[in-house]
Amino acid sequence: MTDKPDLGALFGATPAETFLGIEKCSDPSRAEGSSAFIGAPGATPYGSVGAYCRNAPDALRKATSSLTANVDRHNFDLGGPIFPTGSRRAVDCGNLPFDEADFARNREVISDTVRKVVGSSAVPILVGGDDSVPIPMLDALAATGERYTVLQIDAHIDWRRNHMGEEYGLSSTMRRASEMPHIERILQVGARGIGSAHTDDYQDAVAWGARFFTAHDIHRDGIAPVLDLIPEGTEIVVCTDVDALDPSLVPGVIGRTPGGLAYHHVLDLFKGAAERGNIAAMDFVEYVPEADIDGLGALTTAGLIAAAMGLIARQDSHSGET
To answer: In the predicted model, what is the mean pLDDT of residues 178-206?
Structure first.
């Protein structure tokens, strides 16, 4: 046998254009699901590297194509089907337009779409794209009048004032979040190795009140110390840069760094956040399909997105299961 076995054929899957084969949503202001997958190819890329994650949303959709016939089967990550009986399923809003030259317009499109999805009572799951795409998502949440805890899961702290003269790039995401009045708490999990941050950037973050749990901390102490800092009932935004995971799980990133988090570290952070408060928005960024190995990173990331959809379906007021 020379051809790679087709898992989708084994499971009876049919080709699908959406993540997990879920329903398409062409109007984000009418996103009638518990959550909405929003593909964001880019926002504010640095000129030196460009929009290097622009193909990620479609690659992650493709990674779930073999499971389209199995969505209703038992998912052991969740203890039941992704979407329990009586719950609203997620919807897929497709990919947002991306302009190579007009970065302000890219941010505006992301913010506007997130506001529409939130207004329709669905939880936005923004799938990038590089780590500049969460900035307009976070900014859009100001319109709700709520205050938020940001749970960032990332190998890097993203507290640069600017990088290469750009204030809205991927190295400044948490710095920009800290400047938003509706962001009251930032918990940062998974830092390791060397990134773009200088020591004074880290010191600024600590002075602001950000709390850090390095990858080593998590391997040594587990995730309980992180969850202990999430107040009961708070609104939570989970920002996941997939380079937080060990490169043995997600090799498809721009800068592989050993010693990353395990799949279940991240999954349990999602579960713990959902138990402590209300997941109001999520993003998954920095997956680079062209750097992946045999689709492993796509499979890992897609599994986490699917689990996140299931957790949100369970917290949704229309769900028959808590």
So the answer is: 97
For 26-72, the pLDDT digits (tens) are: 999 999 999 999 999 999 999 999 999 999 999 999 999 988 888 99
In the block, which residue shows the tokens 């138990």?
275
Q: What is the pLDDT of residue 10?
A: 66
Kindly state the average pLDDT of the residues 191-199.
94
pTM for this model (two decimals) = 0.95
- Spatial distance between the Cα atoms of 28 and 25, rounded to a whole number of angstroms: 7
Q: What is the architecture of the domain spanning 7-315? A: 3-Layer(aba) Sandwich (3.40)
Q: Where are the domains of the chain?
A: 7-315
What confidence tens digit (pLDDT) does each residue in 62-120 have? 999 988 888 999 999 999 999 999 999 999 999 999 999 999 999 999 999 999 999 99
The pLDDT score that the predictor gives to residue 2 is 63
d(CA 301, CA 297): 6
Q: What phi, psi does 205 have (nearest 5°)? A: -65, -45
Classify the C-alpha dihedral 61-67-68-71 as positive or negative.
negative
Q: Could you give the CA distance from residue 181 to residue 144 in angstroms, rounded to a whole number?
A: 12
User: What does the alpha-carbon distance between residue 322 and residue 316 come to, in Å, rounded to a whole number?
Assistant: 8
| Contact between 91 and 23 (Cβ < 8 Å) | yes
Q: Specify the residue for token string 């996941």.
A: 240
272: left (phi over 0), alpha (psi -120 to 50) or beta: alpha
Gyration radius from the chain CA atoms? 18
> Distance between CA atoms of 118 and 120, rounded to whole angstroms?
5
